[in-house]
Amino acid sequence: KTEDKKLGGLSICLCVSLQGGVDNEVSLTAYITIALLEIPLPVTHSVVRNALFCLETAADGKEIHVYTKALMAYAFALARKEEKRKALLGSLEKEAVKKDGSVHWQRPGKEPEVDLPYYRYRAPSAEVEMTAYVLLAHLTAQPAPSQEELAFAALIAKWISGQQNPNGGFSSTQ
User: Its GO CC terms (predicted)?
Assistant: First the structure.
């Protein structure tokens, strides 16, 4: 499902079906804000400024899906909005799955992984993707990540590297 939107006189086509299975305007706004900031458009650009205002308003809301929080944390990291980035990362840390010396995130209501002999469990692509966004949010801290953040990021990277398939790829293309 796609939508046509206008951006500074340019028509763009937005993909509404995101990997995380979250189909809402906040996730889409965060996703597009990330893309615009990675171009890089400055945070003073009217489209980016308006998008960040929407994300800041949404961040103050009560119920935010874990996937959306991960996207928002990275968007705020790119925009150098440290207070919002840290608040979201703090909230995400409370929802983290900490197991076997690694850290990751999963969608609410997802069945826990099953330990079977001779079977190497790999998480669905949405879990890999959202965990990667949290890792990016940690490593994009300004002016630089603290030693504490780097240590936590290493636990996240450990989990992500464990999700690689035998060919070195991942289930997610994100």
Answer: extracellular space
